[in-house]
Amino acid sequence: MNVFFQAVTGIVLLQLLFAVWNAAQLLKLGTAPGTRAEKALPAPASPRALRLSVLIPARNEADNIGDCLSSVLASSTGGIGAEIIVLDDSSTDGTGTIAAAAGGGRVRVLKGRELPEGWLGKSHACAQLAEAASGEWLLFLDADVRLQQGALQAALSAAAAAGGGMITGFPRQITGSWLERLVVPLMVFTIICHLPIPLVRSSRDPRFVAAHGGFILIHRDSYYECGGHEAIRSELVDDMALARAVKRSGGTVTLMDVTEQVFMRMYHNARQVWNGYRKNIYAGIGRRPVLLLAVLIAYLSLYVAPAAAVLYYGLSGQPGALLWPAAALLAGLAVKRTSDAAGRQPFWFCLLLPVSMLCLSLIAVASWRGSRSRAGYEWKGRRYG
């Protein structure tokens, strides 16, 4: 077993070196791509230039939409014109009424059309928002997102520097329940540990993408050149599908660190975490069972087996056998801490890594089983295959 854990330690240490380097490549929102310095926002060349449309699809978001809009309205654009549009997607909890009241006349609330055959709900809502928008840049936000005061101005600075394409980032995640703490931060873990961040922008290969639907800023021309949400209308993981579509159409995708300006609580209990990840994991890896199996074996070997061995050898009174499993475990915790620091998560979250990977594995298996079942997945009152 020593040989196995020596190999695991070596692999995880290499993973740590990559994660540290990769995390350092993330530019903060508002920074010009390809630089390390802030780039000042230029004066608009025309009344429409750099005009921003903030677009929020909302289905049964009565608990979120008011606070979301309050944060958007309080966020400065630095004098650049902006409009805010909410689409009430067949809500049954008064979301539209709350949005209209919270907007105080500064927010346009649209009533969503009936969902057509072949479309998924969020993509259809976003397509309607884009259709109604007049801005040069479209900022899609989820209703559970909250903006800091400088977020919109930072977004516009990034837009001016990029010139076009798509800019996205993973909001800082607020967690409450234990399954949230265990699973939600692993979104950033997968990016920091596996995706070379510079290639997201520099490579034309659509496999090198990362996106979070809670914060997507896209130039109007880039949006329509890639086909917009209509082109991905049946894709379950719509944010990644849109990013790939932008790349395929010749546009650029820039992944930025938005955690200082944008935060959210995606889920509020274990059931929501389970259902949300169950819906997305298998689709997110292209519904490839062999790849899913390979990832699960790798994660369990690298991050769970060392902890199990440390526990076993410690309880059975074999301290001499602890060295390499403990080394592998500590290296894994250091990798997790690197990703948690990038996501602005508490230090102690890294200690949860082995249990986090076990939970993720169970949800991934459930996700695979859901794809093979006629029942599929259910989310916000709609059923997906």
TrEMBL record:
It holds the Pfam family Glycos_transf_2. The keyword Glycosyltransferase applies. Residues 53-225 form the Glycosyltransferase 2-like domain. Keywords: Glycosyltransferase, Membrane, Transferase, Transmembrane, Transmembrane helix. InterPro entries: Glyco_trans_2-like, Nucleotide-diphossugar_trans. Its EC number is 2.4.-.-. The chain crosses the membrane at residues 290-313, 347-368. This is Glycosyltransferase. It comes from Paenibacillus rhizoplanae. It is an enzyme of class 2 (transferase). One of its GO terms (molecular function) is glycosyltransferase activity.
